[in-house]
Amino acid sequence: MLSAGSTIPKFDDVRSNRQARATGSWRRRLAVSSAPIFLLGVLLQGCVDPETKVGAKADPIMPLASTTRGISAPFTGKADLSQPLAASSFEERFSGNSFEDRFVAATEFAPQSSARARGGDRTATLPSGSYKVASLSPELPNAISVVKQGQTRLIGFENSAFPYYGSNPRSGNHSSRYSDNRVLVHVPTGFDVRRPGVIVVFFHGHGATLERDVRDRQLLPAQITESGVNAVLVAPQLAYDAADSSAGKFWEPGGLKRFMTEAADHLARVYGDPRTSEAFAKMPVVIVAYSGGFVSAAWSLHVGGLGKRVSGVVLLDALYGEIDKFSSWIINNRSAFFVSAYTRYTKRRDDELVRILQDKGIPISRELNDPLKPGTAAFLATGEGIRHRDYVTLAWTEHPVKDVLLKIAKR
User: Fold this and answer.
1) Is there a domain that residue 43 lies in?
2) How confident is the model at residue 120 (pLDDT cuts 50, 70, 90)?
3) H or E element: which one contains 378?
4) Together in a domain, 208 and 321
5) How far apart are the first and last CA of the chain?
6) For the domain that residue 216 is a member of, what is the CATH number?
7) Main-chain phi, psi angles of 152, to 5 degrees
8) What is the pLDDT of residues 81-95, one digit of tens each?
9) pLDDT tens sequence across 336-349
10) What is d(CA 325, CA 300) in angstroms, rounded to the nearest whole number?
11) Can you state the angle between helices 400-409 and 220-227, rounded to 10 degrees?
């Protein structure tokens, strides 16, 4: 019975409503019956290689130009991507380290105000793996072959030089006054973990901090980036802003090996995927020491436990002692290279090391030839106009770390 004001539905409206209900019912039945097929498709899709699934091709490798344009300014993480790769002989030299998955790092280096400016203690120990300069992006895209945005970070390491509570083998005293466990880690734009690469370990000198000196004044991240070579950097904080050459944990047997094992994990995180740790753990290592960093370098060669992974050593006005350890390493590692550049401050000791090596029949080079070949023992005298303080950016050439990497890449 119809109430007042109601309208009798037309026949066409009734038929349309019935058809709509029938269509909806049919669609619901189809969705239910298709669910198992849909789930099976999802499972199968998960087994497909991500590259095949998205139809992506590997991005061409775009290393940085070998220009020094703008390198005098604090490093911004940006550089020209127009230049080609170094010669493929670098890949032949550092072979056996490829990694076939695709990964990417995602955050841009952005310096923050210092802890001292915020009233904090910059020498306090950080929890292992904690980041002081930048943080990992919460979502890292897959299927990208190279690092698109260079990253520079300060990371707390359990196996960095300090804190150290053992004795100083040189004096017998205990070394517990330093507690800064941070390491400067740099992965440049264009770095590809699937390709042969090299890890630069940098030991700084007296009165240095990682941010003020290694990063901003000595420009280690910038030099590695601008070389265009497939290289990364790890630089531990040694004695914090002090006139002290203490090596801390690098005095210990296996100290460098433990440090590099941990570094592989952190580099993998910075790169974008922990599975790349295995590739970083196999990469050759070049040790670069400046000034007071010679103690950490010498003991790392002597008892560090890294063996043949150390493919080269570069001393930048740094041969202030430990001649026996350096000479022993050079004599017993003729497949590696050794470069010592010096001013008048270290000339006497460099001359002494030259005599030791010549007595063993090892040829000495007085210039750094291009390419830098295995077995090279080069001693480079630099002129009176070169200042010790500026030696990491101006020695036998401008930006010597960059120059060494370029010469390695050409062999």
Assistant:
1) yes
2) very low
3) strand 377-381
4) yes
5) 98
6) 3.40.50.1820
7) -130, 125
8) 233 333 334 444 444
9) 999 999 999 999 99
10) 10
11) 30
